[in-house]
Specification:
Layout: H1 3-27, H2 37-43, H3 45-49, H4 52-64, H5 69-82, H6 88-103
Length: about 120
């Protein structure tokens, strides 16, 4: 391999490593990279959302449809429910943040839900 080919390959490996680190920071290291379509069909949306590659495609689709706030809202609710809060004040502040971000009228990422809820 010539020196130019070596440099390109080295840069590719560095970028790939950085991309993998970013995905692990976002999703967590325990999250599988990919999942087969049969498993998504069997397990449903939860399986799709718990794997890196399918959720990236799903987010891309939501961004095209201008409805990515739904995925962000779902993800924040999942984190809210699984987090252990040190105080009720901390939990209330997090709940208020979720309300202000997704549920209050004219919020930045207002989700489209029935107002009776």
């Amino acid at each position: 391999m010539n020196s130019t080919g070596f440099e390109v390959h080295t840069l590719y490996k560095i970028k790939r490593s950085r991309s993998a680190r970013k995905l692990n920071n976002f999703f967590g290291e325990q999250t599988p990279d990919d999942i087969c379509i049969a498993e998504i069909r069997r397990e449903g949306l939860k399986a799709l959302l718990q794997s890196k590659i399918p959720v990236c495609y799903f987010l891309y689709h939501l961004l095209q449809e201008i409805s990515s706030e739904n995925l962000f809202f779902f993800t924040e609710l999942e984190q809210y429910e699984s987090f252990t809060y040190l105080t009720s004040v901390q939990q209330l502040a997090t709940a208020q943040h979720i309300y202000d971000t997704y549920l209050s009228p004219n919020s930045h990422f207002e989700v489209n839900i029935d107002e009776r809820i």
